[in-house]
Amino acid sequence: MTASLIDSIGWTLLHFTWQGLLIGSTCAILLALMRNSRPEYRYNLACAALLACVLWPAAELTLRLQDGGAGVASMRFSDRMSAAARGGDAGLAAWLQDQLLWIVGFWSVCAALLALRMAAGLAWIRHATGAPLAGPEWQARAGRMAASFGVTRTVRVRVLGNLDSPLTIGSLRPLVLMPASLMSGMPADLLEALLAHEMAHVRRFDYLVNLGQNAAEIVLFYHPAVWWISGRIRVEREQIADDLAARHLGEPRRLARALSELERLQFSGHHLAVAASGGDLVARVRRLVKPHRQALDWKAALPALGLAAACFSLYAHASTERASLQPVLASVKPVADFSSCAKPRWPQASLLAEHTGTVTLSFKVGTDGRVTASRVKQSSGHALLDEAAREGIMKCQFSAGTHKGKPVPSWMDMQYVWSLK
């Protein structure tokens, strides 16, 4: 069971490399086309892309575990990879299979360290909730502003000394942390503009979405597409909060002046909270002061187009192959000539690891009696054993199946039992 679990997790992580590229490049193309649309639409698209990055490998892992840890030979695109291993254990699939324990181990350690980092951030947030409350005037302002934003929860404003930018934490009990340096050195009207920006985050429950982003970044930390999509979510989220705050204030330039003051300060490093300094402050100020339509940068879009085309072509090729593997009905099934079937060679790595199991193969016999295609119907739980069984069945000769007296391509099943006894 442990080996099956490692195989399932390992191949899921490996296959997400191309899955993440497909999702990321598609998201990049769509965001480029939506560059002049409302930030809410781009935000929703980026969130959907990040959710796809989580759900796709989760679905793949679930299927692999249900199949008993089916490895390379039984997984969609893994057939393309396993072809490299047919010449022996030195192929790419065999080498990756040998490294799965190290791959899963490295992923586990890194994910655990990132989870500890997140836990430390949550502990810092818990500690920050004990900071002193701002004066009664600011509590009253926050209450009036929350009501105008349609926020029914009580929003407290606390002052923290070692902070460079306002932060929003919590959802059921939202809290806005204001830096002590800003409270003493920034005009009240600009502070109110920053408070309006934070109130927009409270209204949209952005803190919860941000926690979900951090969880996705922990699990899929090794893929740059996940970090890029998550970064775009944060950029679009800040623009949405800017728009809401500007509409509330009725003075976009006041918010722009407040953000310009923030630009002079060091940005906060507490990414578990939602900070007013998120995104490109200069671009946000420019957008508030002088909005303009963005021209499409084709040079930047070409790499994403190329990646998307490559991934879609692989997917289309695999879909075409799966369509060609549909069963053909025959009134008389093929009959195997067992004298022609050479015993499949036991993979060296599987022999050393003492892997055993039963592989159920479904294969297509052509009109000439030779096997033209095969697939794993039930995995042994070990990718190399599955692939060796497929290699073995390709060497067998059959009497072709017939329909109305004529030979026709047809499918049949066979089991290979790998046993050390």
TrEMBL record:
It is a single-pass membrane protein. InterPro entries: Beta-lactam_resp_regulator, Peptidase_M56, TonB/TolA_C, TonB_C. Residues 331-421 form the TonB C-terminal domain. It is found in: Membrane. Keywords: Membrane, Transmembrane, Transmembrane helix. Pfam families: Peptidase_M56, TonB_C. PROSITE patterns: TONB_CTD. The chain crosses the membrane at residues 12-34, 99-116. This is TonB family protein.
